[in-house]
Specification:
mainly alpha, rod-shaped, single chain, 197 residues, 6 helices
Length: 197
């Protein structure tokens, strides 16, 4: 073998990868036992083996962590936007209530019924506006989060992670979430033991 050092190196690399594959597969099989039985049945040996192969070099861990970071930033940004609009609405309502109170204080008694009717109309109009703006904000949040899911599915599919493809099927989404949970638990387990490549 002294004449062919590259051949020996390739064999040891191949052996190390084989050992790592078996280790990851064994860990995945252990972690799968924590999932609901309906999902355990859908995760075949082949799927787990393919997942273990995808995890060998640690790249998928980095991709998943990057996707989680992006998701958390997006969620925080959307939450802040919703809080901002909520604060603006509260300020509008307080301002309108203050204007109404001031108007009632200076209103002549013979105009009181007309003023109260007008104020009721203004309050109802503001309530309608607030509800509509909140509904539109909530729809925007749902659309953005749906797009994040599609982006994540697409990225993981392109990275060769088995079980990931673009879908809106609730059962498939739950399966993908379970696969992500397995990946994250395995990553955590490996980082605690210091065996991540």
């Amino acid at each position: 073998m002294d004449g062919y050092p590259g051949v020996y190196d390739e064999q040891t690399d191949s052996t190390k990868q084989q050992e790592r594959h078996y280790f990851l597969l064994s860990e995945l099989q252990t972690l799968v036992k924590d999932l609901p039985s309906s999902f355990q049945q859908r995760l075949s040996y082949t799927t787990l083996s393919d997942l273990a192969l995808a995890l060998i070099d640690g790249t998928v861990y980095e991709i998943v962590q990057g996707l989680l970071d992006i998701q958390h930033l997006t969620e925080r940004n959307l939450y802040n936007q919703r809080q901002k609009i909520h604060g603006e609405h509260r300020a509008l309502k307080q301002d309108l209530a203050r204007k109404h109170k001031e108007a009632l204080q200076v209103c002549k008694s013979h105009n009181m019924a007309v003023l109260k009717a007008n104020q009721l109309g203004e309050t109802e109009a503001l309530d309608i506006r607030v509800r509509e703006e909140q509904r539109m904000m909530d729809e925007k949040i749902v659309a953005e989060m749906d797009q994040k899911v599609i982006d994540q599915q697409n990225t993981l599919e392109k990275a060769g992670v088995p079980g990931f493809y673009i879908t809106t099927n609730p059962q498939e989404l739950t399966m993908q979430m379970n696969l992500l949970e397995l990946i994250l638990k395995l990553q955590q387990k490996e980082s605690q033991s210091g065996s991540v490549s």
